[in-house]
Write a structure and sequence with these properties.
The complex is a heterodimer of chains A (176) and B (217).
Chain A: H1 7-14, H2 16-38, H3 40-50, H4 58-81, H5 85-112, E1 122-124, E2 131-133, H6 134-153
Antiparallel strand pairs in A: 1-2
Chain B: H1 2-28, E1 64-66, E2 71-73, H2 84-92, E3 96-97, H3 100-108, E4 116-120, H4 124-129, E5 136-137, H5 144-156, E6 159-163, H6 171-181, E7 189-192, H7 195-201, E8 207-208, E9 215-216
Parallel strand pairs in B: 3-7, 4-5, 4-6, 6-7
Antiparallel strand pairs in B: 1-2, 8-9
Chain lengths: 176, 217
């Protein structure tokens, strides 16, 4: 007698959690990428304020400011369209880890100057949402990270154009 | 392991595609950046952070700079001199500051626009929202687009005053250095550190739209 799949498996197989995660993560990255792509100079100045990129290498700082927003938009489109889900989610995971780390380091630097309580710290993190309370931004990034992990580990491929680039499957078959 | 391999391969393909899209979009965009341009070379090692929640000290009253003699005189009664720190910072890059009072004097001089030229170092949107009447615009990050129009006036002027938003804005310094690189005599270039913030705060007229639009507030 075969065991019926657990609740999480059945939920995943429905495709709903994956679809919601794709829409939220993809939509947010498109929105934030668009804001930054519209004013790359402003984004460049914000990257410079982090003091984590060597100013002696303008190539790196300029490339981040010029290319990253459009890469976010492209990745967001891939997620929403349901193409190369795991690869895209992995890329966004790395971005989120990098962004969150940079924000945390900068916030801790401000905190150690003793001018503000940690959760009272606010600055424009360069995320495309203007000046934000850092605790809220960190929570948001944690949420996005969890949703990206869901996309990586989900087995469902419902509502996807081509969820796995290198697997032979139809658009509505769940990957085994 | 085969699944892991496929995921890694997919990640590589997605990354390459996203980077390619980014590079292509930047190249095609009118707001695209030049990847090799050192936009901040005149401010290397000095980063002005604009948006952190730190208590900001009131700006020190600025000293009056005498650009002709290269001296700094005590401020007259009621005048606001340029902060010593700002002067020193500008001097490090071969630039000189000008006080609000002298800036107003140049603006009100009959020779304004010919002998005395003002240059706004902000982007198109901020320039259109309000600038010193008759000021030219040079957006430092796309300066090639503006120099042809502005340079002849700067070359023929006795004094060129460059400003941006004021406060922590550094773009006026970048544009001033850019004018020098394009051949304008550094002795006649002045940076107005107070910028539009101080100009507006002083109740001075502000022109909106393009240069010479005539729409004055």
């Amino acid at each position: 007698m075969t065991e019926s799949p657990g609740l999480l498996r059945r939920l995943d197989a429905s495709g709903a959690p994956l679809l919601i995660a794709r829409l939220v993560v993809g939509g947010l990255f498109i929105k934030m990428g668009w804001v930054k792509a519209a004013d790359p100079v402003e984004f460049l100045k914000l990257i410079r304020e982090y003091r984590m990129v060597d100013e002696g290498s303008p190539w790196l700082m300029n490339s981040l400011a010029a290319v990253l927003p459009w890469a976010e938009i492209a990745g967001g489109v891939l997620l929403i369209a349901g193409v190369a889900l795991r690869g895209t989610a992995l890329l966004f995971l790395l971005m989120l880890i990098g962004f969150t780390g940079a924000i945390l380091i900068r916030a801790l630097g401000i905190f150690h100057e003793g001018t503000s309580a940690f959760c009272g710290i606010r600055f424009d993190c360069g995320c495309g949402s203007g000046e934000v309370l850092i605790c809220n931004k960190l929570l948001e990034n944690v949420g996005l990270t969890l949703l990206s992990l869901l996309i990586v580990f989900s087995r469902s491929r419902r509502f996807c154009l081509r969820g796995d680039l290198f697997a032979r499957q139809g658009p509505t078959m769940a990957a085994s | 392991m085969r699944v892991v391999g496929r995921v890694i391969a997919e990640f590589v393909v997605v990354t390459v595609v996203c980077l390619a899209v980014g590079l292509a979009a930047n190249a095609a965009s009118s707001r695209g950046l030049k990847l090799s341009e050192d936009y901040f070379r005149t401010a290397r090692g000095r980063v002005v952070v604009r948006s952190e929640t730190k208590p900001t000290a009131d700006p020190a009253p600025p000293a009056v700079a005498d650009p002709v003699n290269g001296t700094t005189e005590p401020a007259a009664d009621g005048a606001a001199p340029v902060a010593d720190g700002v002067e020193q910072r500008l001097a490090l890059h071969g630039l000189q500051a000008i006080s609000h009072e002298e800036t107003v004097q140049l603006f009100e001089d009959p020779a304004y626009g010919i002998d005395y030229v003002f240059v706004d170092a902000r982007n198109d949107r901020r320039y259109a929202e309000g600038h010193v009447p008759g000021a030219f615009q040079v957006d430092h990050y796309y300066r090639d687009r503006y120099m042809d129009q502005v340079l002849p006036f700067c070359m023929g002027a006795l004094k060129v005053v460059v400003y941006c938003s004021g406060g922590d804005c550094e773009d006026s310094e970048f544009v001033a250095r850019g004018l020098i690189e394009y051949g304008v005599d550094p002795g006649k270039i002045f940076v107005y550190p107070g910028g539009m913030e101080q100009w507006r705060g002083g109740g001075m007229p502000v022109e909106t739209g393009g240069r010479g639009s005539g729409i004055i507030r």
